[in-house]
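Please check the following.

. . .
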Amino acid sequence: MTPASPMMELLNAGEPIVLKENDSLWRFLEVSPDAIVVYVDREIVKANHAALDLMGASTLQDLQGRSILSFVSPEYRKMANDRILRVTESKQAVPMMEEKLIRLDGELITVKLYSVPATYENRTAAITVVRDVTEPRRLAHKLQKAVNEARAASQAKTDFFAKMSHELRTPLHGTMGMLELLFESNPTPEQLEYLGLAFNSTQALLAVVSDLLDISSIEAGQISLSEIVFDVEHMLKTLVQTLQPKAEKKGIPLTLDYSAPHLIKGDPIRIWQTFSNLINNAIKFTEQGKISVGVYCRYATMKELELLFAVKDTGVGIPESETSKIFEPFYQFDIREEQYHEGTGLGLTICQQLVELMGGKMGVESRLGVGSTFTARITFQRPTKEEVEQNFRKGKWWWPKTELPRRFWPSPHNADKNAPPARILVAEDNLVNQKLMHNMLNSYNYRVDIVGNGELAINCAKKIQYHLILMDIQMPGIDGLEATRTIRSDDASASQDSPIVAVTAFAMPEDRERCLDAGMDGYLSKPVQRHSMEEVLRKYLHPEIEDDS
């Protein structure tokens, strides 16, 4: 039953419906599949067969003489009475509305109905057309409940991953940082080998944590795409050059064939992440032969183009029966023990979800023992001539950083030797990380103050003008966000305008935004490695030093 149904068109002809006891109109209404009730002074006088079934009546006599309001659930009776007055006294049709009715057997049902004015045997009357929507409403409620439960489960998973990421990154920060300091302590060749193995193991653990966080962020819809004008050909050439030494170490050539327009608008970081994953995967599972990366243009207009990316290897391959599962989370093809490769099985899932987030589609063709070809078809917007010129003039080109920044300190030309050392405040509650930050920063001859909570950070910042504040987020008492807001809002604070950089194990996308919204200038995700710290020190303490990376 809809407002545009034939029954409604018939009853809404503009004038009150004229009904008599057994005229042709009533005979038509009596066989209608919609329940139809006629009442005078709120008392039911006529009801068709569908209405009898709806209300649980055997004969018309079960309903006749009873007030129409006696069938309305108490919480809806005022609304129903207003509807009847509008129809009978104002002679106005009442559009579709929803009420709850009580059947003769006491069952409560949900109905949709509309009412129109009428005359019955020359008396003012009303006709109401009713349809039972109890089951659709029940199913809709059940579906909504399932959706809410799924959302709650998804949020619980996201919260779990975020919590686990934080708990793992905090000790990793101390472990990796201390290993980096040990690298600089003149270890013996044997110790250097052990340190390298330990550092590689922590890097592998960090990669697992990052994969889990990426999956959680994508599924929770917390990853947004940027739209930047960039040279995708240059980006992929740089990526291939970066990974070539890894492939060459296994004796495998890695090549790029690019046959498409090179300037597009898209998210270069996510494209880099996707194809870095795919190429690394190809290298990991290829022992001989070659790996080739191809990019081709499927179609192009003045405004957009579709690129086909292909990463082809001659590795172990996948049986056809398994290709439908390859993008599932945690999937790993069960190969022979001597061919075991480490990993979470999340890399391809992340690739597929990122490609789909960009509006594209991933595919795979593979034969066991022959190799695999992973493809991605993505449509991009093309930059206008004005956008290209504007980006070129302002230097707003995205270039991937593929090497660690050079060590800028200590170096005689970097700063005035006679100038007092920069003073840095570190707010960090973890004792291992306090020791790490102190030793790392002292190696640059800075003056470092360390406090263990937000309240002490506020007090120190109030008295001393720091050149830089490194602020942990989760601390006992006043946390890093509240401490930052307090420092920024206190006109009497000596460090009100000092740069404040978050150093935190919280690594979800929204965590960065929370830090910036609180008044922080930058964000460092734990574990903080020396080159990342040096970028921050250069940016806020030595902006005059050029970055050669």
Summary: Residues 98 and 112 are 5 Å apart (CA to CA). DSSP finds 15 helices and 18 strands in the chain. The longest helix spans residues 134-183. Residues 335-344, 402-415 have pLDDT under 50 and may be disordered.
